[in-house]
Write a structure and sequence with these properties.
One of its GO terms (cellular component) is membrane. This protein has helices at residues 2-26, 39-53, 61-93, 109-116, 120-160, 171-184, 194-220, 240-256, 264-269, 276-281; strands at residues 96-97, 104-105. By secondary structure, the chain is mainly α. The protein has a two-stranded antiparallel sheet.
């Protein structure tokens, strides 16, 4: 009798602890991390996607199409779009391993490669990824400096006239932009600033809309606006060597605008949706 009372007492004393543990598990995902719930997570992930897709790379797409022409330009645009679609589909399915729905989560691109390939392929893919990230970083730095120089040259033309040679170097603006990036990169848990992603998404829509509006106004206003199926004309607009160089530069600009799949795994890692491809379909 005494033993039964002791067992009942122990069970009663352990009940609150058991309930507390069950509450803790309710607040955790299958990977032991805090549960990814609420519209804020989806909003943050969507903002990340919008910022990655409509990044500063879209600013140079108009120039790229002008160099390549409507035929080659649209073909290259569709080709890189398909490549991004295909690679994003693969990455979305590789987010969990071995099962794409119930498998263990992979939080980074390297985790995905390690889970599915392993061996020396992890190092090789790591080198490829970091080279890609370095290239994208260089592209953003150049694009930012060109944009700042364009603003300063525009102010110079408005002040002194369009016949004045306003030569401005890009290098100081590259240094300024890189310095700001180095300072911002020191902020701990920078990726958790959800409001920053929302602001960046709004800015992406803003300057994309401004660029589209200026293009429409230029074409509607007539003047010297000219489009071509084959791009800039050799002997009229540029020389043969300039045509080749600008064509490759335009292809690089279009490829730079499709850097979305590079950060797809990290975006999926913050998703609260049951299957990672759902967050991927928000864009597509």
């Amino acid at each position: 009798m005494a033993r039964e009372m002791q067992n009942n007492t122990m069970s009663i004393e352990q009940a609150p602890e058991t309930l507390q543990n069950s509450d803790i598990h309710k607040n955790l995902d299958d990977d032991g991390r805090p549960k990814r719930t609420g519209t804020s997570i989806v909003t943050t992930a969507s903002a990340h996607i919008i910022t990655a897709v409509i990044g500063s790379g879209v600013l140079s797409l108009a120039w790229a199409i002008a160099q390549l022409g409507w035929v080659v330009g649209l073909a290259v645009l569709m080709a890189f779009s398909f490549i991004t679609f295909f690679t994003s589909t693969l990455l979305a399915d590789c987010y969990r391993a071995p099962d794409p729905v119930t498998g263990t989560r992979n939080y980074t691109y390297m985790d995905v490669v390690r889970a599915h390939l392993g061996g020396i392929k992890v190092q090789l893919c790591g080198i490829a990824q970091y080279c890609n990230l370095v290239g994208v970083t260089i592209g953003y730095t150049i694009t930012a400096s060109i944009s700042m120089v364009a603003v300063k040259r525009s102010n110079c033309f408005h002040k002194h006239g369009h016949y004045v040679k306003c030569s401005i170097s890009n290098y100081p603006f590259m240094i300024i932009f890189a310095s700001i990036q180095i300072i911002l990169s020191q902020i701990p848990n920078f990726h958790e600033l959800s409001w920053l992603s929302i602001v960046a998404a709004i800015m992406s829509f803003a300057y994309s809309s401004i660029g589209l509006g200026l293009s429409i106004a230029k074409v509607a206003g007539g003047g010297h606006a000219r489009t071509s199926l084959t791009g800039v004309t050799v002997g009229v607009d540029v020389s043969r060597s300039e045509k080749v160089w600008r064509s490759f530069q335009a292809i690089g600009d279009i490829a730079f605008a499709y850097a979305y799949s590079t950060v797809l795994i990290e975006i999926q890692a913050i998703s609260s949706l049951p299957h990672p491809t759902h967050i991927y379909t928000i864009y597509y």
